[in-house]
Amino acid sequence: MSNEYRKLLTVITESAIERDLLADMERLGAHGYTVTDARGKGSRGVRDAGWGEASNIRVEVLCDDATARAIALHLRTRYYDNYAMILFMSDVEILRPEKF
C-alpha cells in the first residue's frame, strides 16, 4: 500500500452559518465534507448546543493542499470578524486516494 497524504481542514464555528459555509467550500473545490455537532468553551463563552442558534458545528474536509488553503483563506476573510470560528489543518494519510 502506498502512502498518500492530503490535508484535513477542520472548522469549528456557529451553526447559524452552516448553509453559507458549505456552499463556499463546495464553490472553492471541496468534493465533500462531514458536519457534526460540537460543544465547548472559548473566547466567546460556552457553546452548549442547547438550541440551534447557540450551537456549534465541526466541519471536516479532506482535500489537496491548494484547496484547503484557498478555503481557509476565504473563511478567514469572510467570517473571522463576525463569527466564532476556529480553523486548523493537518496532514493525514489516506487509504482511498481516489476519493479525495
Describe the structure.
It holds the Pfam family P-II. InterPro entries: N-reg_PII, N-reg_PII-like_a/b, N-reg_PII/ATP_PRibTrfase_C. This is Nitrogen regulatory protein P-II. GO terms for molecular function: enzyme regulator activity. Helices cover 25% and strands 40% of the residues. By secondary structure, it is α+β, with helices and mostly antiparallel strands. It has one domain: Alpha-Beta Plaits, CATH 3.30.70. It has helices spanning 18-27, 65-79, and strands at residues 4-14, 34-38, 40-42, 45-47, 56-63, 85-94. The two termini are 16 Å apart. The mean pLDDT is 90. It is built from two helices and six strands, in the order E-H-E-E-E-E-H-E. It is globular. A hairpin with a 2-residue loop joins strand 3 (40-42) and strand 4.
How large is the count of helical segments?
Answer: 2
Just name the CATH architecture: 2-Layer Sandwich
Radius of gyration: 14 Å
Give the class-level CATH name.
Alpha Beta
Cα separation of the termini: 16 Å
What is the ordering of alpha helices and beta strands?
EHEEEEHE
Described by the principal axes of the CA atoms, the overall outline is globular
Sheet with the most strands: spatial strand order: 2-5-1-6
Helical content stands at: 25-40%
| Oligomeric description of these chains | single chain
Strand content: 35-45%
Average pLDDT over all residues: 90
Structural class: alpha+beta
CATH fold field value: Alpha-Beta Plaits
Major beta-sheet overview: 4 strands, antiparallel
Uncertain parts: none
Number of strands: 6
Count of all domains: 1
